[in-house]
Amino acid sequence: MAKDDYHVIVYNILAYLYQCLKHGEKPDESKLRCNGKFLDINETYWKYIFKNLYEYGFITGIIIDENDDGYDIYRLDLAQITPTGIEYLTENSTMQKAKKFFKDTAEVLIPLIE
């Protein structure tokens, strides 16, 4: 796995949102943007990931605005992991491989709550 693999990015986003939930904190939107503090992926890939996380019911709170150019995503500061997202994060074998990637490389894309 590489740090820009879909499952690695999804694991990191969901783990961050789970930590925010457990600590009662709103997510830092700058940590979740494609060109923000921690993610370095192209906007199309970033939109794809967040739209699918939302449509699969793993996260709520974001706004997906359909428009003539496709769609835009807003309100990452309101993103929350759902119980389904928590289950996927903790039970899915691919998520466990992504978690192992972080342990093996000692690299975290989005730092958990400071």
Automatic annotation (TrEMBL):
| InterPro entries tied to this protein | Phage_Tuc2009_YjcQ, WH-like_DNA-bd_sf, WH_DNA-bd_sf
What is the name attached to this protein's record?
Answer: YjcQ family protein
